[in-house]
Request: fold
Amino acid sequence: MSKQKKSPSMRDIAKAAGVHVTTVSLALRNSPQLPLKTRERIRQIAQRMDYRPNPLVVALVQQRRNANTGISLGFISRTPKDKRLVSNKYIGSLLKHTTIRARELGFGLDALDLADYGHDPRRLQKTLHNRNISGVIIAPLPRNHEHLDLNWDSLAATTIGHSLRYEHIDRIDSDYYGGSLLAMEHCERIGYKRVGFLTLKRTDDRISGRWRAGFLAYLPQRKSFKALPPLITDDDNIEHDIVPWLRKHRPDALLANNSALEACESVFKGLDPKLVPKLIQLNIHDAESPMMGIYTKAEIKARIAVDVLSAKLYRNEIGPTIHPLEILTPAVWHEGQS
Reply:
């Protein structure tokens, strides 16, 4: 029986390249501390020698390095002037769980609210530079704040949600289409026959109609459902549009996201209770919510965001992502209070 060939070490590569082992380590991590030609030459030598790093050792070494050097990630949010970052339960949950996961991997985490910088990205960029933060997680941004004018060439970044209008970035988000399908399955299980769908046009545009698509895809599969037309409206017209739509179609259940439900809250309170359908919320952020619908599981998104970002930092992948990832977390049903 032939002996298994021993994998080359970084010391073997250093000897072949005529450099110190530290230089090899920097080159294999694509560190900008070395000239590009040096990095490429050493990596080509490692490839010819069929070098394969041990991923467990790499992760352990990097975790220790992070803890010893005090490397921090940035968690960037943008809140209205009259609110603070942690006042939003969803953002607060994302911050809590990104902090936990970052510490597990040896990173610190700095919460950075653009409201503290006069909503001026240039001031934020200076803070990132001064604190030596090269990896950032962008939390969901409020409407009309989809653009963040940072120097992306100097950052490794990932975002949660589809609010940030920047295409060269990895995203972690909910499976909106799957969430609508799951909500419809449970409506059928409960016994609803006339299920409606409501959202705001800005929301529908932001997520490319995925909630609506899931709703419409489910209807042809079930003859027991009455196919009601979805109501897609805007902020200025929702109170005017919802009442005649309810009176005409008489849904017994209504799928809607939280911003659409908030916009209709006063209308529902003033209506005859017989006209108000069972409300099924498509994006429940609070595990203790009395609402029935789809739970977004912020804790899972937060952990994935940190894992994706830390992997980019390990590989020194700084700057825009040429082929960005889009990771969708599966829909989870939340029974709420009946």
